[in-house]
Specification:
- By secondary structure, the chain is of the alpha+beta class.
- The protein has 2 domains: about 45 residues, no CATH class; about 110 residues, Aminopeptidase (3-Layer(aba) Sandwich), CATH 3.40.630.
- It contains 3 helices and 8 strands; from the N terminus they run ββαβββαβαββ.
- The strands form 2 sheets. Strands 3-4-5-6-8-7 form a 6-stranded mixed β-sheet. The protein has a two-stranded antiparallel ribbon with strand order 1-2.
- β5, α2 and β6 form a beta-alpha-beta unit.
- The termini are far apart.
- The relative contact order is 0.10.
């Protein structure tokens, strides 16, 4: 007997669904993110999650670094921060974080969060910019750890 589930569109024959493991395309990730943020916004009345990016280019217009993340319900999450190895230790990372701070202030953000893997050895860099270590997640391959940091900008109302 086929499995059936009730959906908003009526009965669905589960046995006829095609579910497969795939390497997600940008289109799939964008579609899923759009759908879940639309649904969350409808349920909560909160602003939709939205992405942001900051890029750094050299005098020849070559991308040498940048930062991407998303605004997430009153917070900014730094997802990726990367600088070409030839340009590291030249304050570019600090300039990127200052841009994020300015964006956070403009948007009335409560806190900024970031996570980094142990091998990047940059916890001190984030702490120098006001981030505090929240927790460490271990259990990764080769015994590596992931550090989760948070920078509080606006204290929650009591």
């Amino acid at each position: 007997m086929p499995h059936q589930a009730l959906s908003q569109r009526g009965n669905v024959d589960i046995d006829k669904l095609k579910i497969s493991l795939t390497t997600p395309s940008d289109h799939l990730e964008e579609h899923l993110a759009l759908k879940i943020t639309e649904e969350a916004s409808l349920k909560t009345g909160l602003k939709k999650v939205c992405s942001f990016g900051i890029e750094v280019k050299d005098e020849n217009n070559k991308l040498i670094g940048g930062l991407s993340g998303y605004e997430f319900y009153g917070s900014l999450v730094i997802d990726v921060l990367w600088i070409d190895p030839l340009y590291r230790k030249k304050t570019i990372g600090s300039l990127l974080l200052k841009k994020v701070d300015a964006l956070a202030k403009q948007r009335n953000i409560k806190f900024i969060s970031v996570s980094t893997m142990e091998w990047w050895d940059c916890v001190h860099f984030y702490e120098k910019h006001g981030f505090k270590l929240e927790f460490i997640r271990d259990g990764f391959d080769n015994g590596y750890k992931q550090y989760h940091l948070k920078k509080t900008l606006l204290e929650p109302a009591s």
